[in-house]
Amino acid sequence: MRIDLHAHSTASDGTDTPAELVRNAAAAGLDVVALTDHDTVGGYAEALAAVPHGLTLVTGMELSCRLDGIGMHMLAYLFDPEEPELARERELVRDDRTPRAHAMIGKLRELGVDVTWEQVSRIAGEGSVGRPHIATALVELGVVPTVSDAFTPDWLADGGRAYAEKHELDPFEAIRLVKAAGGVTVFAHPAAVKRGRCVPESAIAELASAGLDGIEVDHMDHDSDTRARLRALAGELGLLATGSSDYHGSRKTCRLGEYTTDPEIYGEITRRATGAFPVPGAGGATGA
User: Fold this and answer.
1) Relative to the CA of 270, which of 108, 144, 244, 284 has its CA 20 to 30 Å away?
2) Closest to 37 (Cα-Cα) out of 24, 46, 50, 29
3) What residues contact 225, with CB distance under 8 A and at least 6 apart?
């Protein structure tokens, strides 16, 4: 089985619609794909309606968190999307994205960049606006060559010149909320140093003690030495070690299935979940 547990659609900052995402996942030879848009489940219905035969969809979300001033992302899988407390918190995070984007655009304009809300809004479309949309605007304007190059201290990285804070969850609270909704939690790309400061391994141990289920080990932002270190850490802490592409369509260079999760790890995730279940494809819709 080929299992990719981290992918984004136009419901947040990917460029594939949810329906396109599941069709592209099947075309890439995947058996299982997880839809994990940022702080939203807005792409669920479309993805579920389009899952083709031979592909299983795992519903999920990537929650924005912050620990001791360091931004981090928590992948949540197979939780009850209607559970009210988790739903309320994710809406708080998502709703704060628009004023935050306006603040970052204001800072960029002060730095002499002729970016506008209209441009960023066009790029985001119906998705939950985020830094990758602003980064794409910087690419369009010729300020940086790629989206990744916008995530530096000069521009949009945590603490960067154009960075602005938003409402983010404490990761310990995120674990509690997801667990209460019957879900499973995995710390996304925990050692992606190119994105900025990372939480220390001592904090990962504390999160494990609080109920964290796993860490994302095999990821494009982790080199081979980092992956080996994280795999050893997962073993020491009794955490599941996952792998995934963190696919964003054409917005990033990663491909669906570039990194995958071991079937035994996937099986354990599904065994632990009680809020929702993987959905095997029933043929899906054929429209775009």
Assistant:
1) 284
2) 46
3) none
